[in-house]
Amino acid sequence: MTNTASAQTGNFWDLEFVTPQPTQDADLLRQLNFVPGLKEILMLRQVHALEHATVWVLGERGNLGNANGSTTTRQSDNVTLGGLSTDEGFYLYGRVNLADLRRAVPTALQRLTTGEWDLAVHPRCGTNLSVGMFLTAGLALGTHLLLPRGPIEQIIGLGIAAAAATQLTPDIGSLAQRYLTTAIPFNLTVVDITPTSDIWGRPAHFVQVRWQE
């Protein structure tokens, strides 16, 4: 996700050679259908994008309901909401009114597939955390090898590595989401949305999807 939930002119999606095509995943699956697990990977990327977009839509509309079903207006990125994507659908953790969620999911799907591709990216995604850890470790190793072995130099190098990783993570994490861990859900259709709970008994919902050509 991003802090604006609509595609902006001049972003990476606008480059013609990376513009998502409606048949790209279906074509890839037909060409490489002998690859084990390919369909599940493609579905997971598309579900991941739909998960992010759903949270954006809920936040934009203030559709974060309380226990009696009333709604309150919140900021577009609410930290009380979390998600987990699978190749069969996604779990949405947090207190959300079911009726609002039933409206938000198809809205998110429609907006994603009609050009609002930035909805697929979110700054709190686990992809960013993984990218940040990788960058920190890589830069720390690089400074360790390049700088003198004295403790002061090594501490300074570690600080520089951590600061650089912090600055680079949002942009690189966003790129990783756009091109690796999410894909526009051109091949998904929503099957059902059901209430459930997490392992601690807190409210959650499961959005079930299926693949369609």
Topology:
Layout: H1 24-31, H2 38-61, E1 64-65, E2 71-72, E3 82-86, E4 89-93, H3 98-113, H4 126-146, H5 151-181, E5 188-197, E6 203-211
Antiparallel strand pairs: 1-2, 3-4, 4-6, 5-6
Walkthrough of the structure:
It is a single chain. The chain has helices spanning 24-31, 38-61, 98-113, 126-146, 151-181, and strands at residues 64-65, 71-72, 82-86, 89-93, 188-197, 203-211. The longest helix has 31 residues, at 151-181. It has 2 domains: 12-121 and 182-211, no CATH class; 126-175, no CATH class. The chain has 5 helices and 6 strands, in the order H-H-E-E-E-E-H-H-H-E-E. With 213 residues, the protein is an alpha+beta fold. The protein is globular and about 60 Å long.
Could you list some keywords that capture this structure?
single chain, 213 residues, alpha+beta, 2 domains, four-stranded antiparallel sheet, two-stranded antiparallel ribbon, 6 strands, 15% strand
